[in-house]
Amino acid sequence: MTFTVEADVQGNGQWQPLETITVPAKGYRHHVFGAGVKAEWVRLKADTACVASGYFHCGGGDTPPRHAAKETAGGTVTPALIRPAKGNRNLQVVLGDSYYEVDERLAFTALPEPKEVSDIRPALELLPELSTDAASVVITDGNGDRWRLPRTDAMFDKPFASGWPRGVREVASERNLANFHGIFYEIPRSSGPKGSETVDYQRMKPVAAHRLPITDFCTWRGLMVMSGEFAPPTVGRVFRSADGKAALWFGKTDDLWQLGKPTGHGGPWQKTAVQGGVPSDPFLMTNFDRKSLSLSHDATKPVVFTVEVDFLATGEWSEYGTFTVEPGKGFTHAFPAGYAAHWVRLKADRDCSATAEFTYE
User: Fold this and answer.
1) Which helix (H) or strand (E) holds 118?
2) Which H or E run contains 356?
3) What are the backbone dihedrals phi and psi of residue 157, each rounded to the nearest 5 degrees, phi first?
4) Within this chain, do residues 249 and 275 fall inside the same structural domain, yes or no?
5) What is the pTM of this model?
6) pLDDT band, residue 60 (cuts 50/70/90)
7) Which candidate, 84, 230, 76, places its Cα nearest to that of 160?
8) Residues 143, 31 share a domain
9) What's the CA gap between 98 and 290, in Å, rounded?
């Protein structure tokens, strides 16, 4: 059947045909619009009665400009644990055996540790909220579902000298920020029953690949605050205690978008024993730019790999394409410029040991 994309170019209710897209029976097809297409509104019209999904992935280029974030040894931000205080409006800072509070003037004051901090200090230790294997980063949610994310740098495979970094924290109403393997992600809250809300990994999106040893982060008095062992990026500012021991980065949540566009590599399989017809774990694709896929296997016969995408982030999978890989040979597929889907997974048509690696540049 054929879908017509209609555009209201000026937002005045004047609709004109823009593109036609033919989709096979019970199938899926993607379409990338040309760079010159401009319209205030778009809509879809089907030539046959049916139940359909039509989803637009929209992007406006890499603006504002992104700054490449690099780790700098001996940086000026320190690996403290931070949180808004309960008894006042200050920011609490725990750095080793030292305790500070930061006031509304961003001035640090060294204080005896309050009882409320002493009581919870055993629980302040940050534990890893992810795991890694040879293929990728692995997140397991409360339902036991596994979600795979790209890797960036090997230094994130193990704890820093100060310990594991914080993984997930709510930074705005019902908006969580995650720091996984050098990439910041935005994660909405799930829509479960009241009192059972958790983070909704299925709808997570990358914000920036910072590649910095960030220890902790939170929001406080409308500011984004970060700690760690890194030189400050070109956005935000660093404020330091009078004794020079504690230093934190302060900025806006929107500054995170300038820490480097999302990039990384990984996939669901890395010389993994694969069963024919069994789909892999989902691997995140949304909001990454130039995308390619490399495939290989150890079978003595050709293996047909099926690539499936969930473009709605609802768990509904559609076939993107199939690729036949000959024995002893590798195969690489470059996705079209501008192509987007939320999650991607693969299936092989026979048992084998297979590698499927995505590169996002």
Assistant:
1) helix 115-120
2) strand 352-360
3) -75, -15
4) no
5) 0.92
6) low
7) 230
8) no
9) 45
